UniProtKB/TrEMBL annotation:
This is carbonic anhydrase. It catalyses: hydrogencarbonate + H(+) = CO2 + H2O. Zn(2+) binds at C38, D40, H96, C99. Belongs to the beta-class carbonic anhydrase family. The keyword Mitochondrion does not apply. GO terms for molecular function: carbonate dehydratase activity; zinc ion binding. The lineage of its organism: Bacteria, Bacillati, Bacillota, Bacilli, Bacillales. Keywords: Metal-binding, Zinc. It comes from Domibacillus epiphyticus. Binds 1 zinc ion per subunit. Signal peptide: none annotated.
Length: 191
């Protein structure tokens, strides 16, 4: 049996038993918040539980490292959609300690890619085409600096609501303890 077979078998029973009913909610977040956080498996439920949010309270966007690294990439677009179409009035950017992106190097990524069949010529072609894949695949050295960078990119984005609070936090994946990095209320008031 494959993982996909297991998933589909479970899902059939899930639907037949109406297990979905306990997750029923609307498409708009009850607490009017959108969270950008990391895709780390330790955070799947911990982030919302540690903040006292339940299903339906928030919109969640996830990526490697909770990083907004391009002002017109899919992460920024998702945050803008949450604000303008899904009624989010605040943004929380939540990085975490012991993040895999904290020491990621493009060299290690390229080595792993080559071991799985990506040819050196493909990487070289991207470089020659002007794509800075080395920078794109680099991690960060400080989660607090990374969160601050993402907060600033969101806060100063030309399409973002100017006075929306954009908060930056770091969570401990072992305990759920939150450390405040950027208080978006103070930053919003300063503008």
């Amino acid at each position: 049996m494959t993982l996909l077979t297991d998933i589909l078998s479970f899902n059939k029973t899930f639907v037949e038993n109406k297990e979905f009913e306990k997750f029923a909610t609307g498409k708009f977040p009850d607490k009017r918040v959108v969270i950008l956080t990391c895709m780390d498996t330790r955070l799947v439920e911990l982030v919302t539980e540690a903040m006292n949010f339940k299903n339906g309270d928030v919109k969640i966007v996830r990526n490697a490292g909770a990083i907004v690294n391009h002002p017109f990439g899919s992460i920024m677009r998702s945050l803008l959609v949450a604000v303008y179409q899904l009624q989010a009035d605040e943004v929380l950017i939540v990085g975490h300690h012991d993040c895999g992106m904290s020491s990621l190097s493009s060299g290690a990524m390229f080595d792993a890619m080559k071991k799985r069949g990506v040819q050196e010529e493909v990487i070289d072609t991207l470089r020659h085409a002007g794509i800075d894949v080395d920078q794109w695949l680099e991690g960060f050295s400080s989660v607090e600096e990374s969160v601050t960078h993402s907060v600033n990119l969101v806060k100063t984005h030309p399409l973002m609501v100017p006075d929306i609070p954009v908060h930056g936090l770091v969570i401990d994946p072992a305990t759920g303890k939150l450390d405040l990095v950027v208080d978006g209320y103070k930053k919003a008031a300063a503008l």
